[in-house]
């Protein structure tokens, strides 16, 4: 999906979006939370997001450690060592 600015068409705030992919339709509700990482985009209700908060924070920290390892290996021209283990 993409967005664009139009001077001729006025948008509506706080509207639900019926997102259709092939035969499946998912509703994204106003107030839902979007979480994006290298695994994809996840849309969660506030209740579910609160339940998963500690798990998401833990995964974020783990991903950050992996990124730093990759960046250090790249900076030191040692990517082959990183991927050979």
Keywords:
single chain; 85 residues; alpha+beta; two-stranded antiparallel ribbon; two-stranded antiparallel sheet; 2 helices
Please explain how this structure is put together.
The chain is of the alpha+beta class and 85 residues long. A hairpin with a 2-residue loop joins strand 3 and strand 4 (40-44). The strands form 2 sheets. The chain has a two-stranded antiparallel sheet. A two-stranded antiparallel sheet has the order 3-4. The protein has helices at 46-75, 79-84; strands at residues 17-21, 24-28, 33-37, 40-44. The chain starts with 16 loop residues before the first strand and ends with a helix. It contains 2 helices and 4 strands, in the order ββββαα. 42% of the residues lie in helices and 24% in strands. The longest helix is centred in the last third of the chain and has 30 residues, at 46-75.
- Outline type: elongated
Q: What is the makeup of the main sheet? A: 2 strands, antiparallel
Order of helices and strands: EEEEHH
* Helix-residue proportion: 40-55%
Number of helices: 2
Strand content: 15-25%
Which structural class matches the secondary elements? Answer: alpha+beta
> Low-confidence stretches at least 5 residues in length (pLDDT < 50)?
none
Distance between the termini: 39 Å
Task: Evaluate the radius of gyration.
Answer: 19 Å
User: Roughly what is the average pLDDT, rounded to an integer?
Assistant: 85
Task: Give me the side-by-side strand order of the main sheet.
Answer: 1-2
Please provide the count of β strands.
4
């Amino acid at each position: 999906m993409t967005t664009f600015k139009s001077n001729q068409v006025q948008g509506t705030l706080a509207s639900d979006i019926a997102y259709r992919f092939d035969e499946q339709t998912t509703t994204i509700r106003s107030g839902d939370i979007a979480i994006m990482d290298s695994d994809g985009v996840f849309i969660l209700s506030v209740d579910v997001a609160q339940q998963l908060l500690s798990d998401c924070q833990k995964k974020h920290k783990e991903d950050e450690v992996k990124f730093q390892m990759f960046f250090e290996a790249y900076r030191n021209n040692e990517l082959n060592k990183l991927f050979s283990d």
